[in-house]
Amino acid sequence: MTIPANPYPYPLPSTGLALIIIDMQRDFIEPGGFGDALGNDVGLLRSIIPNVQALQQAFRRYGLPIFQTVEGHLPDLSDCPPSKRDRGSSSLKIGDRGPMGRILVLGEPGNGIIPELAPLPDEVVIPKPGKGAFYATELEAYLKAQGITHLIITGVTTEVCVQTTMREANDRGYECLLVEDATESYFPEFKQATLEMVRAQDGIIGWTGFTEAVLSTLALQYDAAVAV
Ligand code: C5J
What we know:
Elements: E1 2-3, E2 10-11, E3 17-22, H1 26-29, H2 34-37, H3 49-61, E4 66-71, H4 82-86, E5 97-98, E6 101-102, E7 124-128, H5 139-145, E8 150-156, H6 158-171, E9 175-184, H7 188-203, E10 207-209, H8 211-227
Parallel strand pairs: 3-4, 3-8, 4-7, 8-9, 9-10
Antiparallel strand pairs: 1-2, 5-6
Helix pairs in contact: 3-8, 6-7
This protein binds dicarbonimidic diamide (C5J).
């Protein structure tokens, strides 16, 4: 079975599929967090929430693994390079106290996943200090332990943490589909450029496709099994 996608249909494996949800945390999506401190219109990211929710619910329904990530640092910032903390002219920097607690620090209110996408107690949330979800994290160990080979990728922001993660995954041999209407950027033109880049040259980084295509193909593959 395949999911309709670009540059050509995405092969859906019989086992080894996982959903990756990147950084749907308050820091990027709500006022008063890291995204806001950098001068972005954080409201732009909210439009994808229903699609990410629909994918999350489908993966739960079919018993397929879901991995969420949050970008954040230890309270002592020992995992935050000075280059990352010091860059730019923002008045609120990583580790500073803002309206949602310390900016981009693990465990602070602003670092939490938005309530709409709250993970279930048995779902894995990977804290990550970098933009890519494979750098200095346990994600790859989890994927290998569960025999995951194919990743459906969603989240924010498209050209930063999502694209970095997809490139890291591609280099490690994962077959990745980036869901166009379940990823968002503060910069529409950067989102568009990312979509085109990853699927160019016959899918040099992977595939892009839409939520509805993923959901309807999963339903064809798994609904019969669920009904039994
Ligand atoms: C950024 C992210 N944009 N999750 N993080 O700093 O894309």
